[in-house]
Write a structure and sequence with these properties.
This protein is α+β, with helices and mostly antiparallel strands and about 550 residues long. It folds into three domains: about 5-60 and about 170-250 and about 355-410, FAD/NAD(P)-binding domain, CATH 3.50.50; about 100-165 and about 250-355, D-Amino Acid Oxidase, subunit A, domain 2 (D-Amino Acid Oxidase, Chain A, domain 2, 2-Layer Sandwich), CATH 3.30.9; about 420-535, Helicase, Ruva Protein, domain 3 (Orthogonal Bundle), CATH 1.10.8.870. It has 18 helices and 18 strands. The strands form two sheets. Strands 3, 4, 5, 6, 11, 12, 13, 14, 15 and 16 form a ten-stranded mixed beta sheet that branches. The longest helix is centred in the C-terminal third of the chain and has 20 residues, at about 380-395. The chain is globular and about 70 Å long.
C-alpha cells in the first residue's frame, strides 16, 4: 500500500485504524513533516494526519527562502544565525534540487537599517556564522557599482550596496518531499484527515478521534505519543486538552504580491528597506517577481486569511520608494498570498520584534506541542521534539534509544550528484521534444530526479498541456493529490506564479484527473469552479 497514492486512500485509512503508532503527528506543514521523517528514520512507527492538504497553511505561503539569518543580526542573535546557517548547509546537501543559491543585493540607503560600516561588519559575521562557502561570501559595492547592477534603484537615497548569499526554495515542494521521503522509509501520512478530540487512558492521551473530511467517516487512531505540530492551529488543538497556561501563540500575517517580471525588471533578488524599519524582498521566479512580506498582528479566521488593500498599498509604496521610476499599480498584480506565522507571544513586543525561536509545550496528559521557528530550522525543530518523544518511549515503554538520523538523509528527488549536468541533459531531452529550456529548470527544481518519471509519461501534441497532464498523473500516484487546487497551488505553484497558464490547462487536466479519481460530472464542475474562484480571489483585495 502506498499511502500517498490517491486511488489507495480508502485502503490507507482502513489500515491506520488497525494500528497503534509510536508517534502520531497532528499537522502536515514543514514541522510535522520533519517530525515524521525524524521518527521514521529512528525506526519508530509514525503517522501524520493533516486536516487539509499538506503544506496548505503557512508552509506554502512563506517568502520561500532558506535563510542564512541576516535579519537576526539586527537582534544580535548570533546563536540563531549560526544554527540556521548550519541547517541551510545540511538542506543544500540533502535537497540540492530544492535549494537554489541566490546572490541577494542589499541596497544601503540614507537612514536605512544597515549603514555601510555595520553592513561590512554584519555581513562578515554572517559569512562566518552562517557557514557561507568561500565563493559566495559578501561583496561590498560603491554607489556606482550598485547602480550598474540595478539601474532602477533610487539614486537620491542610495549610498552603496552589498551582495550576499541566500538560498531560494519552494516551501510546499520541500514539505512534500520530506513527507514522501518519510513514507518511502515506512512512515504514513494522510491528508484531508482532521483531528476532532483526544482520547485518554488514566488521564494520559493514547490517541485521537479523527474524521476523513472527504467521506465524512469518523474513526479512532491509537498512539503512545501524540505531537501537536499544527502551526497557527497549535493553540486550538491545545485547548482540547485543557488550559493553555502562560505560554500562548502570537499570530502575525505575512503577505506577498506577485507581478509580471517585466513590471519590475530586476536582475537578481533584492532585500531593501521599506521605510518603517522593516525589510522587503523582491525575488524573480520564472516569468514573475514576488514581493513581500508584511508583518502585522492577526486575530481573524485562520481558514480564510485575506490580502487586504492596505497590505497591497504598503508593498507597492515600499517598492516605489526604492524604485521611483517604476509605474507599479494594483492592476499589475497577477496573484497574492497570505500566511500566518505562529510565533510565541512576548508581552509588549511588536510583530517584527518577536523572536522566531521555537518552543515546546508539555502537558500532564503527555501532549507535546511545538510552535514558532522558521522554515530553515525545521529539521532541528523536529529533532528536539522527537528527542523528547523518544525519551518518553524509552522511560515508559522500554524502547531502545535511537538518536536523530536526518542530518544525512537525502530527500526524494535529491539523489543527483551533478545538478548542472542533470539540468543540461534534461534541456537536451526537452529540446528534442519541442519544450523550452525554462521548463528544464522548472522540472529540475520542482521534482529533481523524479522529473524523469514525468517525462516518461509525456504524450500529446500540445506540449504544455501534455506536461501538465504528465505531472498530474505523477501527483495522483505519488503525491496524494485529491483536488485541482492541490495540484495548481501546492504541487506546481502555477496558481501563484503562472496563473495565466491555467485557463488553457484547466479543462484538460480536470478531465484527466476525473478519469483517474473516478469523478462524476458534478465533481468535475465543482473542481473547475473552485480553481476559477481562486483565480479571482488572488487579485481581490478587501
Amino acid at each position: 500500500m502506498n499511502c500517498l497514492s490517491a486511488p489507495e486512500r480508502a485502503e490507507a485509512i482502513s489500515q491506520i485504524q488497525k494500528e497503534e503508532y509510536d508517534i502520531l503527528i497532528i499537522g502536515g506543514g514543514i514541522t510535522g513533516a520533519g517530525i515524521l521523517l525524524d521518527a521514521t528514520t529512528r525506526g519508530l512507527k509514525a503517522l501524520l494526519v493533516e486536516k487539509n492538504d499538506f503544506a496548505s497553511g503557512t508552509s506554502s505561503k512563506s517568502t520561500k527562502l532558506i535563510h542564512g539569518g541576516l535579519r537576526y543580526l539586527k537582534q544580535l542573535d548570533l546563536a540563531l544565525v549560526r544554527e540556521v546557517g548550519r541547517e541551510r548547509a545540511v538542506l543544500y546537501r540533502n535537497a540540492p534540487h530544492l535549494v537554489i543559491p541566490e546572490r541577494m543585493l542589499l541596497p544601503l540607503i540614507v537612514g536605512g537599517s544597515f549603514s555601510k560600516f555595520m553592513s561590512r561588519i554584519g555581513l562578515t559575521i554572517y559569512d562566518i556564522f552562517a557557514s557561507v562557502k568561500p565563493g559566495e561570501k559578501k561583496k561590498m559595492l560603491s554607489k556606482e557599482e550598485t547602480l550598474s547592477i540595478e539601474k532602477g534603484l533610487n539614486e537620491e537615497i542610495l549610498l552603496g550596496g552589498a551582495l550576499y548569499s541566500e538560498y531560494r526554495t519552494d516551501d510546499s515542494r520541500l514539505t512534500l518531499e520530506v513527507i514522501k521521503t518519510a513514507c518511502n522509509l515506512g512512515g504514513v501520512a494522510i491528508n484531508y484527515t482532521a483531528f476532532t478530540k483526544f482520547n485518554y487512558d488514566n488521564e494520559q492521551i493514547n490517541g485521537i478521534s479523527a474524521i476523513d473530511t472527504m467521506s465524512e467517516t469518523r474513526f479512532q487512531l491509537k498512539a503512545k505519543q501524540v505531537i501537536n505540530a499544527a502551526g497557527p492551529w497549535v493553540d486550538e488543538i491545545r485547548e482540547n486538552d485543557g488550559d493553555l497556561g502562560v505560554k500562548k501563540l502570537h499570530l502575525t500575517k505575512g503577505v506577498h504580491i506577485v507581478i509580471p517580471r517585466n513590471k519590475l525588471p530586476i536582475h537578481q533578488s533584492i532585500y531593501f528597506d521599506a521605510g518603517d524599519g522593516r525589510m522587503i524582498f523582491t525575488i524573480p521566479r520564472g516569468g514573475a517577481t514576488y514581493i513581500g512580506t508584511t508583518d502585522t498582528n492577526y486575530s481573524g479566521d485562520l481558514n480564510a486569511v485575506r490580502v487586504t488593500k492596505e497590505d497591497v498599498d504598503y508593498l507597492i509604496t515600499s517598492v516605489k520608494k526604492m524604485f521611483p521610476a517604476t509605474n507599479l499599480s494594483v492592476e499589475d498584480i497577477i496573484s497574492s498570498f497570505a500566511g500566518i506565522r505562529p510565533l510565541i507571544h512576548q508581552e509588549g513586543k511588536a510583530p517584527g520584534e518577536i523572536s522566531r525561536r521555537d518552543e515546546i509545550f508539555i502537558t500532564d496528559s503527555r501532549l507535546l506541542s511545538i510552535a514558532g521557528g522558521k522554515l530553515t530550522g525545521y529539521r532541528k525543530m523536529a529533532k528536539k521534539v522527537t528527542d523528547m518523544a523518544m525519551e518518553r518511549l524509552v522511560n515508559e515503554f522500554n524502547y531502545k534509544h535511537i538518536s536523530c538520523q536526518t542530518r544525512f538523509v537525502v530527500l526524494q528527488g535529491g539523489d543527483i550528484s551533478d545538478m548542472g549536468a542533470f539540468k543540461s541533459d534534461l534541456e537536451k531531452s526537452l529540446s528534442g521534444m519541442g519544450i523550452s529550456e525554462e521548463r528544464a529548470f522548472y522540472l529540475t527544481h520542482t521534482y529533481g530526479s523524479q522529473s524523469l518519471k514525468i517525462l516518461a509519461e509525456l504524450n500529446g501534441e500540445d506540449k504544455e498541456i501534455a506536461l501538465a497532464i504528465a505531472e498530474m498523473n505523477y501527483a495522483i500516484r505519488f503525491e496524494s493529490v485529491h483536488t485541482l487546487l492541490d495540484f495548481f497551488i501546492r504541487r506546481t505553484g502555477r496558481l501563484f506564479f503562472d496563473p495565466l497558464s491555467i485557463e488553457k490547462l484547466l479543462e484538460p487536466v480536470a478531465k484527466r484527473t476525473a478519469s483517474l479519481l473516478k469523478w462524476n460530472e458534478e465533481r468535475i464542475d465543482k473542481e473547475i469552479q473552485s480553481v476559477k474562484l481562486a483565480l479571482k480571489e488572488i487579485v481581490q483585495f478587501d
